[in-house]
Amino acid sequence: MRYQVSGKQIDIGEALQAHVETELGVVLDKYAHRPTDALIVFSKTGGEFQCESVVHLSTGLNAQASAHAHDIYAAFDACAEKMEKQLRRYKRRLKDHHKDRVEPVELFGASSYILAASDHEDEQEPDTLTPMIIAEMETKIPTLSVGEAVMQMELAGAPVLVFQNEKKTGVNVVYRRPDGNIGWIDPQIST
């Protein structure tokens, strides 16, 4: 298990690094089998410290948590508590489904684009309907079951997740609806 503890424009001492590895190690030993690595980043905004952590599991899933507090140790402890809650839910779901993924999640490449926001102040019609691309990045799309996709979305704290369905060909989407439920888009492929 690799730990990468760093700070954004703040110095992270050896005592904090040891505390992070010890406490997060206890959580991961209890709930996550074979985690590969953990990235913990501390930053300071105003008078508060923020801790963001990402744990990569050997199944290909990622767990994310973040917290902030006036003390750097309290920020990490709150973040670790959130991580523990997510991993406990993940482990419970695996037990409920009586299924443990033995093969890692398959990933395939895709392009991700960031489009320029339109100015709502300008009341004129746009010259073209083609949006301006301001950034292009490489991203990975996982091959998951629908249940695993929902779990991954919740672990990441994301509002939406694009994935390839294990049982079908094609790209699917799960998303959090405004009413709190989960929506699933499963396009029908015509033959």
UniProtKB/TrEMBL annotation:
<keyword id="KW-0963">Cytoplasm</keyword>
<comment type="function">
    <text>Required for dimerization of active 70S ribosomes into 100S ribosomes in stationary phase; 100S ribosomes are translationally inactive and sometimes present during exponential growth.</text>
</comment>
<dbReference type="InterPro" id="IPR003489">
    <property type="entry name" value="RHF/RaiA"/>
</dbReference>
<dbReference type="InterPro" id="IPR036567">
    <property type="entry name" value="RHF-like"/>
</dbReference>
<comment type="subunit">
    <text>Associates exclusively with 100S ribosomes, which are dimers of 70S ribosomes.</text>
</comment>
<feature type="domain" description="Sigma 54 modulation/S30EA ribosomal protein C-terminal">
    <location>
        <begin position="130"/>
        <end position="183"/>
    </location>
</feature>
<dbReference type="GO" id="GO:0022627">
    <property type="term" value="C:cytosolic small ribosomal subunit"/>
</dbReference>
<keyword id="KW-0810">Translation regulation</keyword>
<dbReference type="GO" id="GO:0045900">
    <property type="term" value="P:negative regulation of translational elongation"/>
</dbReference>
<dbReference type="InterPro" id="IPR038416">
    <property type="entry name" value="Ribosom_S30AE_C_sf"/>
</dbReference>
<dbReference type="InterPro" id="IPR034694">
    <property type="entry name" value="HPF_long/plastid"/>
</dbReference>
<dbReference type="Pfam" id="PF02482">
    <property type="entry name" value="Ribosomal_S30AE"/>
</dbReference>
<protein>
    <recommendedName>
        <fullName>Ribosome hibernation promoting factor</fullName>
    </recommendedName>
</protein>
<comment type="similarity">
    <text>Belongs to the HPF/YfiA ribosome-associated protein family. Long HPF subfamily.</text>
</comment>
<dbReference type="GO" id="GO:0043024">
    <property type="term" value="F:ribosomal small subunit binding"/>
</dbReference>
<dbReference type="Pfam" id="PF16321">
    <property type="entry name" value="Ribosom_S30AE_C"/>
</dbReference>
<comment type="subunit">
    <text>Interacts with 100S ribosomes.</text>
</comment>
<dbReference type="InterPro" id="IPR032528">
    <property type="entry name" value="Ribosom_S30AE_C"/>
</dbReference>
<dbReference type="InterPro" id="IPR050574">
    <property type="entry name" value="HPF/YfiA_ribosome-assoc"/>
</dbReference>
